[in-house]
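Recall the central idea of this unit: under ordinary conditions, the amino acid sequence of a chain determines the structure it adopts. In this exercise we apply that idea directly, starting from the sequence alone.
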Amino acid sequence: MLSLFTCILFFVFAALYEASGQDNIVIGSNVDLRNDERLPVRGTKNWQLLPQRGTTFSPRHSHATTVFRCPGDSPSTQCLWLTGGYSDSHRSFDLRTEKENSDVWYSKDGKSWNQVELYGDYIQGVGNWDAKPGSFAAPWYARYGHSLDVLDDEDGDAYVMVLAGGNNPMPSNDVWLSTDGIRWYFDGYAAWPKRAYHSTAVFQGKLFILGGTPLSNSVWAGSLVKNRTKEVGYSIKWTQMKDAPWTPRAGACAIAHSVSEDIASLPNATEEFANNTSEALFILGGLAGHSQENPDYEGIRTRNDVWKTTDGETWERVMTDTEVWPGRAFHGCTSWTSNNNDPTSQPKMVIAGGGYMGTDGNREVRSLETYTDTWWSYNGSEWMKINYEEGSIYKDNLYSTNEWTEITVEDGRKVYRGKWGFSLEAFVASQDLNGDGKRNTERAMTKVCSVANETLCKTMLLAEQEIPALFLIGGKVEGSSMVSDTFVSQRGINCELDGITCGNKGSCGVTGCICHSSNFTGEYCMDKKVKAQTSSATTSTISCLALIISIGVLYSIW
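Accordingly, the structure predicted from this sequence is:
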């Protein structure tokens, strides 16, 4: 009878255990948590508006940003850098009224922005030759829709910012170099035709220039070479690649991204990021179309096709313009890893915002209809939506869990509007993870706990002042003004799909999900461990059933 009682208890506890794996997890209240009745479940914040300290750059869109060493610090100390952009009318250094900007800013944390006093090649006919060196006016003409990238030379001992092209106010092809962000030197006019709103990425050690306006599908690659005749010590050698097969476009996004063919199926990759990864160059979306004289002309509109190349010349279409996220241009994108020290944390491509416009059959949209969404992908072909949002009305979404979309209008209502012309950078944020009142600069084994349940923890190799994060900077809000705000990604960006945290089976740690049960695994706690448990449970179940049947038979005989 004791054995029978044990078997009954086995069945009861098995049923309770299974139920515990199926119930929704209720996440507790915390500053990092979001609790809104409109959500399918309560979740973790995706973004946080950073408080601005002191002066900051004026509200603007179509500026260019990058990550580069801070002035006066060691090369290992990195800063966010911002240049140019389009803003409200203002007085320039020579008292003219203009909307383009020729300023340079940097920040160590996205909160405090410092404007740079600038020097370099003030050359007549090339840039702001009559500006005073040491002022806030750069040697290059004020501009927007330009690019800003960081390039190394072949020996790997150079570290140079490259500013290229843009509207100043017309499309241009001048190139400027700086090794410190303070002194800017004219590198001449590039071999590629004048353009703005082109896409750039550093791929295989070269700076790739893709497309731009006037609409183009040309591809150019620039290599940084030593040049003793230049005061900066370097120059860029440009090589024209084959024209790409994608439709001529501007306002697209380009990403150099490491891809592994061994990644598990989305959204629950659990395998170690394989050593046989390969770097590929991707171009995503954009405002695209052929000229009307071209037999392939079908109007000009924003696209959502994704193309990749592994050599800069042979392109493969990995996502058609009929799949997943809607066509867009002037969006933000980047490649980033949520935890550089975790071998299961694969690099992701992230895109956000932007908008739709153009002509598609009888539909004509003349101004951008913006988006409030964020998506990610390992490989460019399969995409997962991070945020939750509800339908839309003119200009205003009913809701979005992307906090950078929330604004308050004149009547005090909170509305959710998309944004375009911002920049998206992979950088680092700081946070006291273990509650000791300090923020360690050196990597150390750090105990990271769930914000919902402090008993759910895992130990990770982290530096508290170098938590990987995304920074969304400036931009233009649909139906509203330009902004100068900076948002930093929060825990939810690593844990949510369609606003649901960790598949309702876990809590959100600083770099990803902490599953509530060993029964569940994977990046979003959506993989269920069943094989070993099934084997054990099946054996016990069969034994118990056999015992019960035997007792029943004996009882009937008796």
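The CA atoms of residues 139 and 509 lie 46 Å apart.
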